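Q: A reviewer asked whether we had any structural model of the full assembly, not just the individual parts. We don't, so I'm hoping you can provide one. Inputs are below.
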Amino acid sequence: MSTDPKPPRPVPEGDEQLAPYFAAAKDGRLVVQRCSDCGALRFPPRDICSSCLGVGAEWVDVSGRGEIFSYNVMHQVYHPAFASEVPYAVVVVKLAEGPKMISNLLDCPVDAIRIGMPVEVVFEPTTERVTLPKFRPV
Amino acid sequence: MSLKGKVAIAGLGQTRQGKVYDRSYVGFAVEAVQLALADAGLEREDLDGLLLNPGLAWGTAAMGSFMLQQALGLRDLKLQATMNIGGATAGAMIQHAALAIAAGMCTTVACVFSDRPLKSPEEQKNRSGGKEGSAASYAFARGLDAAYGHFGVNAMYALIARRHMHTYGTTQDHLGAVAVAQRQWANKNPAAQLRDVPLTLADYHASRWVVEPFHMLDCCLVSNGGVAVIVTSAERARALKKPPVYIWGMGQGHPGGEPAETLVSGAPLASSTAFRMAEITPADVQLCELYDCYTFTALVTLEDYGFCGKGEGGPFVAAGHTAPGGSLPVNTGGGQLSSSYMWGMTPIAEAVVQARGEGGERQVPRRDVVLVSGNGGLLSTHTTLVLSPLPA
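A: Here is a predicted structure for the entire assembly that you could use as a starting point for your response.
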């Protein structure tokens, strides 16, 4: 692990809508929103359910298991925090429960990533206050 | 009531495009309108409608079209709007202009796009950020994405392209074939930014990765400049300087949901309306000017209009059908990959050039039915225009 000072990752810590998500991640739990009216699961969070337009929602635990829906490999540096990480992969994980999440895949070289690969969540402390859910191959 | 052949494009104005810095974004828009008016043989006073698609440089200017009205010194407009559905906006502006003209609200509408995302070397030197305002303007991130290093439209489209490759067996060679075919067209277009740069499939593979599966040559150019198109009634257009380019058909399609799941753009929806109005089928289309923010976008659009089966866009292009001399010329000026990126105005402008027979070395012989697509978001918004030099 490099000890060079590196600019911090841009994490939307102040995002009120994501606060329960970050709190759960810190606690080692992966959560998504569930519509109180129709039960549809959703992520990222919304004020109003796009399936039934119901207003109420609660955050519920999900299994943290899923599969790679798609991925790309970033070569261009768009933010200094990632300058020493290129090329790195960004993955879309389709959770077993349905919703999709943008994330990173740990413990897997970029050229070994495949669509359909089963993965599970791991929790990576990113800043003092924020732990980011990431994934690794099962 | 059909509008087929009732409304026409009567003027086209294109500023110099690419790494040109001698105008502001408003200045490029004004110059484009002046050029379009001159092309049509009209005066500024003849305009009574103004629609603007503001590029990135316009920022959050909520009333760009009013800014442009003032900059152009236009009085007593009867139609005005600032519009944005991404790369589908240019087509949408022409459609709204046509509808307003047919409804009797106005007679002569300028549809305008301009942008100035590139900073001159001098401007870059004078600001601390160095590269800010360059292609990085397209590198925004949504919500949590930045925390995972997911930046920019390139990266978002790459995820969809990867799904297409997985689902249909589309290969890197297929994507490269789009880039090579369009460059062959650009090599014949004096105004193309990459006119003098030949391209082979090997060159394509050797170009640097931006975000896999996209090489740099899978991504459109980033250009400064402006384009304006004058829309008026067919009757009025026939009395003007240039031969009219008639609007035979037009439609929109915005499917919603997740294009990454369906891998289908709004083209099927938009074309069903436009083809019915134009009274044509895909077999009648003689050339295409397709929105090509990426090689992948052009490829999937060919599938969605039915020029080949779903998932067969790669082999279709690799067989040479879309290149010079092919059975279905596509993006005959080089498109946004090799000529210039004026959002949806690039395909519309080239369609006008071809329909008039002004294409010079790149002019295609069969030009009676020209298909133009616009695409915005992530395969999310879509407009179709069917254009022709013939009234019906």
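A: Points you may want to mention in the reply: The CA atoms of residues 30 and 122 of chain A lie 9 Å apart. Residues 19-26 of chain A form the longest helix (8 residues).
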